[in-house]
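> forwarded from #structure-qc
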């Protein structure tokens, strides 16, 4: 560059060299000044954050209201907590009606603290309707159970009954102890939708336990789905459905779909197979927001 300036200019070489040196010095100074101001900004920001942390208190992030309500747990896992609605305590079927005609009482059999399916009388469902809830139920297939596949200890827990028959959202009840069937129809499945994460079924004659958290679907005024239904299911203390998103109502034939409803009863199904009837006990529900 020096050679080029010398040829193109009449200035003395010494003066040209001075100008180049001055330009280089100014450029270097600008770089240092920029770096200095950047460093100054970082230091200022760090000081500000430190000052905020120094002035912050633990109480700033503490939330005290609203306080969760006090709930007294049952003396064991079978006993309902203090805020539960008891749907069956071994005494009567006062909380249940016929699903075919809700003006008629449920006609399943009650003896020795146990409710046993009376297949000829059809489905039964709760008098009350529910939205979101926690649910507990114990059920047993008889020790002398016969049949195979879907024709062995079949029933259904409908987490929301949206009509007569099998309308609604079914959690499958089935004797899946050494009993092969399609996996989205075995015990613990959201019928024809979910495949259970495990098969912790106890052998016939022993009591099984379902604990369910049900989140009902939310609909717009026009019937479109704002939020789908979800189910979390434990069978005998083992997670088998983990916040599973339902595709709609469960269907024996065809694809699932949603149709608008608000609250709905909980329904129990007596399957039409010829195997010996199931029994139930200790059924309760806790309504959730």
């Amino acid at each position: 560059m020096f050679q080029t300036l010398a040829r193109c200019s009449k200035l003395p070489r010494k003066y040209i060299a001075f100008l180049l040196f001055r330009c280089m010095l100014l450029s270097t100074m600008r770089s240092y000044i920029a770096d200095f101001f950047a460093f100054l900004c970082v230091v200022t920001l760090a000081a500000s954050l430190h000052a905020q942390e120094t002035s912050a208190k633990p109480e700033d992030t503490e939330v005290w209201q609203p306080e969760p309500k006090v709930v007294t747990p049952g003396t064991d896992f079978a006993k309902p907590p203090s805020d539960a609605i008891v749907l069956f305590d071994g005494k009567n079927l006062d909380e249940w009606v016929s699903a075919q005609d809700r003006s008629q009482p449920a006609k399943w059999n009650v003896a020795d603290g146990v409710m046993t399916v009376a297949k000829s009388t059809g489905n039964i469902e709760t008098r009350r309707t529910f939205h979101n809830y926690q649910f507990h139920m114990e059920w047993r297939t008889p020790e002398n159970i016969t049949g195979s596949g879907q024709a062995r200890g079949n029933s259904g827990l409908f987490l929301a009954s949206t009509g007569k028959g099998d309308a609604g959202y079914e959690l499958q009840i089935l004797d899946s102890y050494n009993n092969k069937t399609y996996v989205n129809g075995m015990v613990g499945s959201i019928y024809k939708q979910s495949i259970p994460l495990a098969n912790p079924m106890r052998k016939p004659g022993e009591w099984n336990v379902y604990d369910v958290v049900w989140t009902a679907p939310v609909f717009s005024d026009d019937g479109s789905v704002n939020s789908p239904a979800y189910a979390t299911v434990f069978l005998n203390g083992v997670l088998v459905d983990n916040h599973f998103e339902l595709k709609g109502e469960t269907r024996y034939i065809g694809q699932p779909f949603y149709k608008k409803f608000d609250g709905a009863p909980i329904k129990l199904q007596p399957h039409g197979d010829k195997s010996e009837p199931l029994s139930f006990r200790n059924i309760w529900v806790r309504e959730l927001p």
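QC bot note: Confidence is low (pLDDT under 50) at residues 4-9. The longest strand covers residues 279-288.
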